[in-house]
Write a structure and sequence with these properties.
Elements (H helix, E strand, L loop, with lengths): L1 E9 L2 H31 L7 H6 L1 H7 L1 H5 L3 H24 L16 E4 L6 E4 L7 E5 L3 E6 L7 E10 L2 E9 L12 E6 L3 E5 L4 E3 L3 H4 L1 H11 L12 H35 L2 E5 L3 H4 L6 E2 L7 E2 L3 H14 L1 H15 L2 E5 L24 E3 L6 E3 H19 L3
Parallel strand pairs: 8-11, 11-14
Antiparallel strand pairs: 1-5, 1-7, 2-6, 3-4, 4-5, 6-7, 8-9, 9-10, 12-13, 15-16
Helix pairs in contact: 1-5, 7-8, 8-11
């Protein structure tokens, strides 16, 4: 199996400058390749330029401008061109599917934050000597950079990536390793119901509080964004020192919210994986749930619109994004696979409206957000616990229906 590791780098001032130049030159290569594809399509009878053609030109580009392109790893530049090729492949796939295409766009220096090295030892070298307390990574054109390795890397390192987040630099590794030993069986199974009032409710009646990280940081974010709005939008090289600090302030606050959300998701998943052999959850279509409401033109007043509850839906969408369901489910799947646990996604329809005692399904069974009262048999319970119980019952049924 493949596992990813992310470590903080501790570059010196000189190494920071070199890392910034590496990102800048790879960004220029990406934009130049994008411009070539656009020109070929517009002016040469809608001709499509492929990755193989652009990769073959790299040798000439490096020889023509050795100061800008020749000092960086050839493989990393190929990875940048492959990244653009994947963006175009996704663009054409969306066009054929009738979706909003979103053509690949030019990247500014501040929006190009990653350089990938497809193979350890080709333009990069992960150097973690067992007897050396200091871990380093060597990058062609940059040199050796110290790494804050907070845990051991198991298996053979396959790829290395460099990522910039604000003023911090990270190295991202992927390592191929044997499948770990599964955790001891507990004999416990659980169903979980995800929501807004409570982040998670399981079939045993345990509620996990929704931390609402973005809402707690809303006041600070509002103040930081208000301070940033005082400055006109400029390119990074033309910003004043105060403007740059305002930009970094907003970015740091968003980063803190993201890290807190990830930390909460990891800890919640860890508790579930350790205690249960099977975890059933709702197969939520989060993108569809967080779509904006379509406007409704007023037939009696041209140019006017009917009330459509857009304000309430916007608040709900913000709460869904703040909860981070997608991140949680991704981490749950990954950790469960490593621990030898089983995760089953079930159809979420009517899970909170069906009575777990008599099976009667009706909208009236759930009079409020929290209460469940079956109109057929009179069963009363918390609505989220009922939903989690029905999810748990549907999990084994789906597994038996799809044994493959």
């Amino acid at each position: 199996m493949i596992r990813a590791y992310k470590f903080l780098m501790r570059p010196t001032v000189g190494r920071q400058i070199a890392l910034g130049e590496m990102l800048r030159d790879h960004c220029g290569l990406y934009n130049g390749a994008l411009q070539e594809r656009r020109d070929a399509y517009r002016h040469v009878s809608r001709t499509s330029v492929k990755y193989g053609q652009q990769s073959a030109q790299l040798k000439e580009i490096r020889a023509f401008d050795p100061e800008r392109h020749g000092r960086w790893s050839f493989s990393s530049q190929q990875a940048t061109l492959r990244r653009l090729d994947k963006a175009f492949a996704a663009f054409f796939r969306r066009v054929k599917a009738g979706e909003t295409p979103g053509c690949p766009r030019f990247r500014g220096v501040n929006w190009f934050d990653t350089v990938d090295f497809p193979k350890d030892g080709d333009g990069c070298r992960w150097d973690a000597t067992p007897h050396d307390p200091v871990t380093r990574v060597r990058l062609q054109g940059v040199g050796h950079v110290k790494v804050n390795q907070h845990r051991a890397v198991l298996g053979k390192v396959k790829t290395v990536g460099v990522k910039r987040e604000g003023r911090k630099w990270f190295v991202v590794l992927t390592a191929e390793q044997d499948r770990p030993e599964p955790l001891p069986a507990t004999g416990s199974v659980v169903g979980i119901d995800m929501g807004i009032a409570s982040f998670l409710t399981d079939s045993n009646g345990v509620h996990v509080e929704n931390p609402r990280h973005a809402r707690k940081a809303a006041a600070k974010l509002e103040a930081a964004q208000r301070a940033l709005s005082r400055y006109p939008r400029r390119k990074a090289k033309n910003r004043t020192r105060k403007h740059q600090r305002a930009v970094e302030r907003v970015a740091n606050l968003h980063g803190k919210v993201r890290r807190r959300r990830l930390d909460h998701a990891h800890k919640t998943v860890l508790g579930l994986v350790r205690e249960h052999d099977l975890i059933a959850h709702e197969d939520l279509k989060i993108r569809n749930m967080s779509k904006t409401v379509a406007s409704k033109p007023d037939p009696d007043k041209p140019g006017a619109f009917l009330p459509n509850g857009a304000a309430a839906k916007t608040g709900l969408n913000r709460s869904i994004a703040d909860a981070g369901w997608g991140v949680f489910l991704t981490i749950l799947t990954s950790k469960a696979e490593s621990a030898g646990r089983e995760v089953i996604a079930v159809d979420p329809r009517n899970t909170s409206r069906q009575c777990p005692e008599c099976g009667h399904t009706a909208k009236e069974n759930r009079p409020t957000q929290e209460k469940f009262h079956c109109v057929s048999c009179g069963h009363r319970a918390h609505a989220d616990v009922v939903g989690a119980t029905n999810v748990l019952r549907a999990g084994p049924v789906r597994r038996n229906a799809n044994p493959a």
